[in-house]
Write a structure and sequence with these properties.
By secondary structure, the chain is mainly beta. The protein is 10% helix and 68% strand. It contains 1 helix and 8 strands, in the order αββββββββ. An 8-stranded antiparallel β-barrel has the order 1-2-3-4-5-6-7-8. Strand 2 and strand 3 form a beta hairpin. The longest helix has 18 residues. It starts with a helix and ends with a strand.
Length: 173
């Protein structure tokens, strides 16, 4: 079921994105860091860090792909989590210096428990404030993360921020 959902979203993005009007868009590479609050009993918050690519479909809608990593201990066990996700971000005031946004997406979530690796299809939702300073952007963001859609009752939250620079280039979709 989760593979079907992941493939459905991926195929939908492949079909929808080329149908949008072609225009020069901004492709952004950024780095991010946040505090991850693990769902496991007895776990302390840990640092989650990663990078992302953001493509401006239009000034209100962006597509984002990102990869992150965190490791932590809980009740004498060691855990890691590495999500690789794709999603859409809706910007509400894209021309303002402070731009609130909401987004969400799905992805591949690789995790380990005491060295034993598993992978799942997961999902996340984001809310944030983007601060525009010329070609530089920074944001404060909160993410709600469900690392395994088969166990949607197990979720976590991360909060933090990111920074990026923008290069404008023509991308044909």
């Amino acid at each position: 079921m989760k593979k079907i959902l992941f493939l459905s979203v991926l195929i939908s993005m492949i079909i929808i994105l080329p149908a949008l009007p072609a225009a020069a868009g901004a492709l952004t590479l950024g780095a991010k860091a946040s505090v991850y609050n693990p769902p496991e009993e007895g776990a302390d918050p840990s640092l989650m860090y990663g990078f992302f690519l953001d493509y401006e479909i239009n000034k209100f809608l962006h597509a984002r792909a990102d990869a992150s990593y965190t490791s932590y201990a809980a009740s004498g066990h060691n855990y890691t989590l590495m999500p690789i996700t794709i999603g859409l971000i809706a910007h509400f005031l894209p021309d303002a210096p402070i731009d609130p946004y909401l987004g969400g997406g799905i992805g591949y979530y690789s995790s380990t428990f005491d060295g034993s690796e598993t992978s799942h299809t997961g999902a996340q939702a984001q809310a944030g404030l983007n601060f525009h300073i010329g070609a530089f952007s920074a944001a404060l963001e909160v993410s709600y993360i469900v690392p395994d859609l088969d166990h949607s009752d197990i979720a976590s939250v991360s909060w933090g921020g990111w920074a990026s620079g923008t290069a404008y280039m023509y991308v044909p979709f």
